[in-house]
Design a protein that fits this description.
Elements: H1 8-34, H2 36-41, H3 44-78, H4 83-107, H5 114-140, H6 144-147, H7 182-211, H8 216-220, E1 268-273, E2 279-282, H9 283-287, E3 292-299, E4 305-315, H10 316-323, E5 331-336, E6 342-346, H11 347-350, E7 356-361, E8 364-365, E9 375-377, E10 390-396, H12 403-406
Parallel strand pairs: 1-10
Antiparallel strand pairs: 1-2, 3-4, 4-7, 5-6, 5-10, 7-8, 7-9
Helix pairs in contact: 1-3, 3-4, 4-5, 5-7
Length: 417
């Protein structure tokens, strides 16, 4: 004999429970991936598995939506007289579908133009900021002990004798119920706590996402910049008058280790390897090198973009020409000042005219959190190729596999036009 088919109520209940747990784990893994501070604590080995788990759970959540679809008509019929439940169902479905669609774009962002990924990330973040507090509130207020009906104090008058002629003596009376019961009080208290906790960071995120900024100095303040690299007065010869109107968007600081600190007394920049004229400069010598200015877009492989950045620095081709590349050199390897991160591009790619060793962004020194004092800029590729805190360039013969490429990123980092 075959097993008994689960009833409609059990099917709905199972789907609801599975969706609830998946949403919780999605929220936790998503926040771990997106929260700047937490990303700095996690090393590369931890972040990629978290990302893959997040993607897998997103796909599983979509499967649950598909399984719910045949039950939707009957479910809507069941709750047709319950407007709150209908509203909650509509909200959750919009949330899940929005998360899923924007997640697909972020997951497969190489198939879409960067503007699609940027919009998808904005939608994904917005839904998360709105949904997580709501889902916490929804879950806590539906715990079984919270759903028990409030006992009302009802006082009934002594029973009247049949002979009594006073009608008020023949019917019970109720003491008026309080204007708010325990369940309502707890629900609104929980809601207020969640709102107070979530609202400030949400509005800070919304302000940054909506307005963008034109310099890292505007965001962090010069006093907060831990580079300690600039002599007084600061030399800003070319890009003080920002070309192109300034950056549109905002950077999300990521690091695979702790953010490093730099000092002009000990900082140096080196070009060596398979070159005829190895070079090493201290900070003041490096600032004295001839610089160029360009305007380009900056795209991160996680989906966000900053448009129309004005970068000022030394074209990589000029540095390599000055060093004199030997005939057997085939790749250019870059070393970050964090002591951990490396990456590489081919010698042919290094010759692109917009590949730059940048020292200024929109006319201001590049803040430490955004890769300063010196960072590589490769506009045609995703930003994991644009090494932050650049301190050394080495010409090599054998192909070097970079930090993120070893951990699953594609060595082909070209951005879809």
């Amino acid at each position: 004999m075959g097993g008994k088919k689960p009833g409609f109520g059990k099917q709905l209940g199972d789907l609801h429970r599975w969706n609830a747990w998946i949403t919780v784990i999605l929220a936790v893994t998503g926040l771990l991936l997106a929260w700047d501070v937490v990303r700095g604590w996690l090393n590369g080995e931890a972040r990629n598995p978290i990302k893959q788990l997040h993607i897998a759970l997103g796909v599983l959540s979509a499967v649950l939506i598909v399984l719910y679809t045949p039950l939707m008509r009957r479910h809507l019929k069941q709750i047709r007289q319950r407007p709150r439940q209908k509203g909650n169902l509509a909200f959750v479905l919009v949330l899940l579908v929005g998360w899923f669609l924007s997640g697909i774009v972020l997951w497969q962002l190489r198939l879409f133009p960067p503007v699609w990924a940027n919009a998808a990330l904005l939608v994904h973040d917005l839904l998360t900021w709105v949904a997580v507090p709501y889902l916490v509130f929804h879950s806590v207020t539906r715990i079984r002990w919270m759903k028990q009906p409030e006992r009302r104090a009802i006082k009934t008058a002594p029973a009247a004798s049949p002979e009594s002629s006073d009608p008020d003596r023949r019917r019970p009376y109720e003491e008026p119920a309080p204007w708010i019961n325990r369940r309502q009080f707890l629900k609104w208290s929980i809601g207020a706590v969640i709102a107070v906790t979530a609202a400030p960071p949400f509005f800070r995120w919304l302000a940054k996402a909506g307005s963008g900024f034109t310099s890292t100095r505007d965001v962090m303040g010069t006093d907060a910049n831990p580079n300690m690299m600039l002599p007084d007065p600061v030399p800003l010869p070319d890009s003080v008058n920002v070309i192109g109107g300034g950056a549109q968007g905002y950077f999300r600081p990521y690091t695979v280790t702790r953010f490093p600190k730099f000092d002009s007394n000990s900082w140096s920049f080196t070009v060596n390897g398979l070159v005829d004229n190895p070079g090493k400069w201290n900070w003041e010598q490096f600032l004295a090198l001839s610089r160029a200015v360009q305007v380009s877009d900056f795209h991160c492989v996680t989906g966000w973009s900053v448009y129309k950045n004005t970068w000022e620095g030394i074209p990589l081709s000029a540095l390599l020409q000055q060093a004199g590349v030997k005939p057997n050199a085939r790749f250019v390897k870059f070393y970050s000042g964090d002591g951990v991160y490396t990456d590489a591009i081919s010698l042919e790619q290094a010759g692109m005219k917009d590949v730059m060793v940048a020292v200024l962004h929109d006319g201001n020194p590049i803040h430490r959190d955004y890769g300063g004092p010196v960072r590589l800029i490769v506009p045609a590729m995703y930003a994991y190729k644009s090494v932050k805190w650049l301190e050394r360039i080495e010409l090599v013969e054998e192909e070097h596999i970079g930090y993120w490429e070893v951990r699953g990123y594609d060595n082909d980092a070209w951005i879809k036009a």
